[in-house]
Amino acid sequence: MNKQTRDLLLRILNARNKWFSYQELADAFSVSTRSIRNYITTINEFLASAAFSPIYPNAAGEIGFSGSFEQAQAIQERLLSSDFYTYRLAPEERHALIRLLLLCRDVHLTITDFTERLLISRGTFLKDMEAVEQGFAQEGIRFGVRNKGYLLEISEGLRRQSIAKCVTLLLSDQDAAQEYGVYREFVEDILHFSLRESSVTDALKSAERHYGIDLSDAAFQKLALYLSINALRMQQQRFIGAAGPLPGGAYKDIAAFILHELCDRIDLPYSEAEMCYLARLVQTHIAHNRDVGDAEFELHISVKSFLYRVADRLNLPLDSDETLQASLVTHIRNSLSSGNERERISRYQEAFAHQYPKTYQAVEASADMLRLIGYCNNKEEFLAVLMLVLTAIEQYYTDAPPIRALVVCNTGMVTANFLTVKLQRLLRIQIQATVPLHRLKDALEVHGCDMIISTLPLESSFPWVQISPVLTGEDMQRVQTALQEVDMQRSQTEAYRQAQRVFDNYHLLQHLAGDVHVEDWRSAIRRAGELLEDGSGASSAYTDAMIRVVEQYGPYIVFAPGIALAHALSQTDGRNCASLIKLREPVLFGHPQNDPVRYVLAVCTQNEREHLQALFHLMNMMCDERLSAALDVAQTTTELREAIVQYVRH
What we know:
Strand order of the largest sheet: 6-5-7-8
Distance between the termini: 75 Å
Helix content: 55-70%
Mean pLDDT: 77
Number of strands: 12
Strand content: 5-15%
């Protein structure tokens, strides 16, 4: 089986349940349809020899593989074992493998070492070696004395740079996305390790989960090969002396995390230079158009600002729904970075507008927050966001525990039972008891409940709603509104707990300032930053970094009307800390909807994960109407502190 036939089989196997016409395959491989038919004949002979079912055309005469993933995997593994010694390397593949052999060995290699490894003749190797030497010469890499064979004279830093180039040559994006391949087997054989079984891949997957990174298959495979080779060098005590400048953003944190994971698995020593080198590799391969770091937080805060507006219009606690925020962030990030084809759902726009008018209008009125980051500019993007919000609402009503209620009815038990059955059938509600008015007080003491539903007016501070014994549509709407208010109260209770954690972990009460006069937004951020410097060990450089975030990415930090959340991902040596100032006169940050700004929060943390969580909880806290109302009244630092303390206590 030649390379063309093998590649055709891999394409068919990796597109399970997809059918190709002969012409489509002929065009893809730049051959005639007759050649494709001949390739299929060869493939079926191979499959029959290995006791696999052959590939037959479907009723439309198209070719495809409809078997299971396990069957495809078994065929691919058999293909590897059968094809390794008959696979014909292309010249560029041989050149890359010769480079890799030379770069990964610190001993002399003879011509025989190459010919036996690559299954080529002496004449072919010598011709290939001429091209390899020319490539090395262009990089400033020389060979030593050749009386014992081939050995490079090269520093470890230059060696690693050349290895990185070599990996790019070894694995094209299409090849790297393949989990299996004979060519990959040559690479693994040369390096004496199995990439598929390496703990390197586990470390990379852990980093993806921990930092929310979206690596493409090609980037993942390339990084796995980079890391495997680098780990081999480090285990041999071959270290980089200096790795050059460290990239900005979270790349150093990600690199340190990966190396720490590897240390836990394979006892791998590494240096600061190794971490910096890996950080630059990570920066190259993470699948974002924007940097991980400050721009990632722009996305999170813009999504939060959007949800704040939607939640306010729908009177639902969507802005505190971390799952919804994560779904929106992931969807928008992938759309902005990959340019993947979007779902074609625009033809359903009128149907959505008619079926869900209130939610549709809320999303439409809030979408400007997403357009600021370049998303939601067409019907497909708008409807995708709408559907994510609708899904969250449905999930919210499905997953949230039922509201516990007492029914007060003065018309008799028959009517009371009718109301109980109908309310429980139609609404997310659990009736704890049905009582006459004179027993209400005792029932409240006996039964835990969230609200009262009554057929007569009440004088009670406890949440209640009045309905008629007939339970009309208007009654149902009133009960539904009351349920939403109870849900909001539950959400606020959770927000209080989150706020308490923020105060404890970020020492906010110690870093407040009221009645602050500033000239512009820069001086506002600088004043909030000074409070961080006093309390967290952050330097003035961190405050400068917070200002640069706005200069580079715009005023997205103004996430709600009148409130800005200054931050940067620059590393600090001190503790986690947050500060809050209230300005005497509001200032303009340049935000089209949320200017002018009266409150400026600032936050610094030790890593990206804590940073995101701190931002989320601080935004939740500042969006709570009870706290914002109290802060609006407060003027001095003491009054600000008292308003926050009262908010947490109640």
